[in-house]
């Protein structure tokens, strides 16, 4: 079965009413894309991130009169639709198309992240089976890769660790597999907590090894200090939470921070230097990672 896609370029203030109207005309799905390659990295709390100019993509059945639908949209929203195009989308095995884009990835010398449908390339390595899902973190993003490489470089035997903003649980699971005695994973998103527990179970990581705590965005949880803290979140929460996150690391312990653009990394490095002896910034593309050792203050 084929599908029809209607692409409309509009300003963000018109995206919602046009999306609602297209749904009423029978659109099976509607997605939004950036029209100007302008990334949005940190939406404000409670804000839906939208670019200034959007490509609104509506999916219709092949039998729908999509030209008529566009003409009606142009009349319904005069002068608002800047550009448009219609495209035929051939049906395919979407599951297989999705799967082929995810391959096993190596981090450091001994750590691999493998999708469940693929045999680990090195059966003697530390292999974490993890599929892309709703919660952030499958190893494909540069920030996750930077964090994994850092963890792989540490001596984690019998260490305790906090994964602050654990997402999929990938960093916590990797830490346990690399020898950590106990990891506490925290997240504000209940979906992340569920995904982390499922991924941990899939990788034979017990609740005793990987403890999960849903935290509030407004309250700082009372957490005991640990040997290591890793936080792959964003620059703004790393700024706001800096004294709190620093307090969770014991003297001579280590901290690793990512989710940072290269333009933000030095500022965060300087901020955390109040409490940590910071290492040089490490970057991968547009993203960076900073780490340090807790001072005895």
Quick overview:
The protein is an alpha/beta fold. Helices cover 28% and strands 32% of the residues.
Largest sheet: 8 strands, mixed
Element order: H for helix, E for strand = EHEEHEHEEEHEHEHEEHHEHEEE
Number of strands: 15
Tally of distinct domains: 2
CATH architecture label of the largest domain: 3-Layer(aba) Sandwich
List key phrases describing it.
single chain, 297 residues, alpha/beta, Alpha-Beta Plaits, Rossmann fold, 2 domains, 8-stranded mixed β-sheet, 4-stranded antiparallel β-sheet, 15 strands, 32% strand
Note down, in words, how this protein is organized.
- Strands 8, 9, 10, 11, 12, 13, 14 and 15 form an eight-stranded mixed β-sheet that branches.
- The protein starts with a strand and ends with a strand.
- It is built from nine helices and 15 strands.
- The chain has helices at 15-24, 66-76, 94-99, 142-153, 170-177, 190-202, 235-240, 242-247, 262-272; strands spanning 2-11, 29-34, 53-61, 83-90, 105-107, 111-114, 126-129, 160-164, 182-187, 210-214, 226-232, 249-261, 276-278, 282-284, 287-294.
- It has two domains: 2-91, 2-Layer Sandwich (Alpha-Beta Plaits); 100-294, Vaccinia Virus protein VP39 (Rossmann fold, 3-Layer(aba) Sandwich), CATH 3.40.50.
- The chain has 297 residues and is α/β, with parallel strands linked by helices.
- Mean pLDDT is 86; it is low at 38-48 and 93-99.
- The chain is elongated, with a radius of gyration of 23 Å.
- The longest helix is centred in the middle third of the chain and has 13 residues, at 190-202.
- Strand 9 (182-187), helix 6 (190-202) and strand 10 form a beta-alpha-beta unit.
């Amino acid at each position: 079965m084929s599908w029809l896609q209607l692409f409309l370029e509009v300003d963000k203030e018109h995206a919602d009413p046009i999306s609602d109207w297209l749904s009423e005309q029978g659109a099976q799905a509607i997605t939004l894309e950036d029209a100007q390659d302008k990334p949005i990295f940190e939406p404000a709390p409670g804000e839906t991130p939208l670019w200034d100019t959007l490509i609104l993509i509506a999916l219709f059945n092949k039998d729908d009169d999509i030209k008529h639908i566009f003409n009606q949209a142009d009349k319904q929203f005069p002068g608002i639709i800047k550009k448009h195009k219609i495209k035929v989308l051939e049906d395919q095995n979407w599951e297989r198309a999705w799967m082929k884009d995810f391959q096993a990835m190596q981090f450091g010398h001994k750590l691999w992240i493998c999708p469940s449908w693929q045999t680990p390339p090195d059966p003697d390595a530390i292999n974490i089976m993890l599929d892309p899902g709703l919660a952030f973190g499958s190893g494909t993003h540069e920030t996750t890769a930077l964090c994994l490489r850092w963890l792989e470089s540490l001596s984690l035997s019998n260490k305790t660790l906090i994964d602050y903003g654990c997402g999929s649980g990938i960093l916590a699971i990797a830490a346990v597999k690399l020898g950590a005695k106990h990891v506490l994973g925290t997240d504000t998103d209940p979906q992340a907590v569920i995904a982390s527990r499922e991924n941990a179970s899939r990788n034979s990581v017990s609740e005793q090894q990987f403890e999960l705590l849903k935290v509030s965005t407004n309250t700082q949880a009372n957490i005991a200090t640990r040997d290591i803290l890793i936080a792959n979140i964003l620059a703004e929460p790393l700024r706001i939470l800096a004294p709190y996150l620093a307090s969770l690391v014991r003297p001579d312990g280590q901290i690793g921070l990512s989710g940072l653009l290269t333009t933000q990394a030095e500022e965060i490095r300087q901020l955390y230097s109040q409490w940590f002896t910071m290492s040089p910034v490490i970057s991968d593309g547009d993203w960076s990672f900073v780490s340090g050792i807790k001072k005895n203050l």
